[in-house]
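Chain A, query sequence.
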Amino acid sequence: MHTRATLHHDLRQLGVVDTDTLFVHSSFRSLGQVKGGAGAVIGALRDAVGPKGQVLMPSFNLIGSRDERAARWDIEQTPSCVGWLTEAFRQMPETARSDHYSHSVAAQGCRSQDLVSGHLSQVGMSSPWDREPWGKTYSDESPMVKALDLNVKILMVGIDYESSTYVHLVEVMWWSARLAHDPTSTFRGLDRVELGRIWDQEGVLARGQVGDAACRLFEAPAYVDQLLVWAERL
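Chain A, predicted structure.
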């Protein structure tokens, strides 16, 4: 059975260091049996980044239509629909959560409140998920964009690139660049799995085990920049 200490060791072996900011995509089940459950996993993540680091997770509300999501949104009560670990993380008293009806992000750490506090901002790139009175999903003040300034690392725990939310940011950046030249340009999605396959072959990333889970760890700014290059060739 895995423990908080053994998971911490595995995260260190993978390459997580003190002061890291992590954006975590996860399958809790993939880790195998963990003494202490989700709390031990989250504790291991916090131990690995240390007191000056941050742990971020998606706490998205994606069930139903956008009207339905907006109608039921409550920053304190609406559950995360993207995995058990994210929901356990959301409910912890030390977790701060951003105010966005569909693409909320949760965070713990010394800069968590600053990272999540700007999600009502209307300054920055537009996306298909924008909806008033909430801010732009990937505004300049949104958690995922602000985390890039901290050289956030993406940690994928037992999942594939289908869950790679930073691809949405690439889609928005790609669309914004096209709109600058053609105001009639429409939003286009990207194949996350195919881009992930190429990234696995050509990108800079670490791969290893945390508990029973096959994991990937890589720097999000480099990932975003490279995917944008590939997108612009389409």
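The beta strands are 21-26, 54-58, 96-97, 105-109, 153-157, 206-210, 213-219. The chain is about 40% helix and 15% strand.
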